[in-house]
Please model this.
Amino acid sequence: MGRLLILLLVAAGCALPASVAARTAEATIQRVETAVAQLHGVRVQLHWPQGAEAGELRLQAERVESPTLGYVFRDLDWRCPLRRPGTGAWGCDGPLRAGNGSPVALAVALDASVVSAGLRQGAATLALHRDATSPDLVRIDLTRVPLAWATALIQQAAPTLQPGRGTLDGRVDVHVATAAPLRIGATLHGRGLAFDSDDGAFAGEGIDLAVDVDYRQPGAAHALALRGTLRGANLLLGAAYLELPSAPIALTVDAVREQPDAGWRFTHLRWDDGAALRAEGAVALGADASLRAMDLRLHSDDASLLPPRYLSGWLGVAGLPGLTLAGTVDAHVRMVDGALAGIDAGLRGVDIADGRGRFAFAGLDGDLRISEGAPVDSALSWRGGRLQAVEFGPATLPFRSVAGRLDLRGDVAVGMLDGQLRFSDLSLLLPAQGQGMRIESGLAVEALRLDELASAFGWPAFAGTLSGEIPRMRYADQRLDFDGGLAMHVFDGEVRFGSLALERPFGVAPSLSADIELEDLDLTMLTGVFDIGQIDGRLHGRFDGLRLVDWQLAAFDGELHTERRRGVRQRISQRAVQDISSVGDASFAGSLQAQLIGLFDDFRYRRIGISCRLRNEVCEMGGLRSAGNTFTIVEGSGLPRLDVVGHNRNVDWPTLVERVAAAVGGDVAPVVE
Model:
């Protein structure tokens, strides 16, 4: 629109015919100034054959520039047959070119009081009207005008935006009084509009917009007032992705930019998407379009509409794609100097469910208030929920906030697996001074029943409890670290977890690291649960530097071994021998005894030991002792004596996992050598 406006004004201001007394007239003008543009190196030629009804007009300009609207053209060239109809108005209609660009048809008609002009290119037309009775006003009518024609004008307000597809219809009034700032008033309807930005941070497509615009340039400042409706747009705004409905969304914008190198201040914003979201407030952007300040109130009567329409981009970045909401939500969000300064949120009957089934909350009710100043109290409760396949009970969290910090006012217990999780001294600190959100809390795990845990995940049933205390757990920069440890009392022994840390818990490829120690587990109970034959004895072991990436084992240094205990027999069944041998790529040793294994149900053993150092999907295996590429897993005792010896110390980890699964599933057939 701005580009065509300049071309029309140039033609309207300079297409006055020279005297027709001579057959040919020429004029060279160094500089021509109009209300919105300057022409340099202007040359006008008029050739009018004697007695002819029309002459040939040619207007050329080396450079045309408009600091106000942001356009610069070179090598402007317009040719047309100049006629004077019986009405007394002069008219000229012909092709207009700028440099090597495609031509457009420019038609100009003017008399002593009125200038009319029109541009045509395909189905697009743009008509200009200027009347001597109101010389400061230029009216422009648009019909199917490509949005791309408005590139320079749009970039005056948003330098990094690149208009794309779509067309505009409507009317634009340009006020160009010499003693007053430029003012543009418009009533426009855009269809199928699209845009993007130089850095790819902002983009939109499929935009249907009906809007009234008031744009002004008082001095170096820019002021914009916009009232309209928006339909069916897909918008990318930084990390936010909006997929808007076909129903109209009412939009109000009042904004100002004091200097060309300053950011926009949206002094009043209003957005009405019905039950999905209503928002009102003010926002300030930096010169780089970063969010610097905000005071925004939001309300949703139907939170189920928020994720698909407004939250999918942020949820994807947070590792929560597919998250669903239900209920009613209110929020008041404040930001100062690019940092979150306060939040007041109200939840009424809100349900949250992770798209991957990792967690869920039911019946969230209450308020969550985070204050940047004086202390404020709030409380939030839920009816129940689920963590993976494990359900947990109701709880109420009493909060107190001061100076951007949110703290629990007391311990909170959450029932789970017939035990409870107890949180103490929980605190949350808002992002500030370049640091992200930080959370700290103490956690006590009190007698969670492992048989219910096994049932929830479909594991083999086994009894025991999980207890422990973590004096402090800290979350910052997408990493959760735990002080202290946890202990499982299981199989008449204990499994202890230490050095726990979790990275990117909801992001891409979450990573868990830990050290695990096994102490005095009853092998009879353990092998009975996992169906790998029967082994009697007591098991000890450790897994140092254990690391899971995307919940798949990636590394550890582990070993398992038996220790003799008074009064406990040490025997291993034939089925267990077969399963251990299949896992360790082992064979039996002991000549005659090895050949007669099928004749005995079980065997005495002196020791059992096996180790694995996992790196890069290769398990470097070992046992009680090693020699070359062999290692002893089972050292027999008495008669018949049976030793189990492994013959390959480097085993492909996926293959080893398949062997373990086959052994646990009972798919290993007896082999007698």
Q: What stands out?
A: Helices lie at 2-14, 151-157, 306-317, 450-457, 523-530, 574-583, 592-595, 653-664.
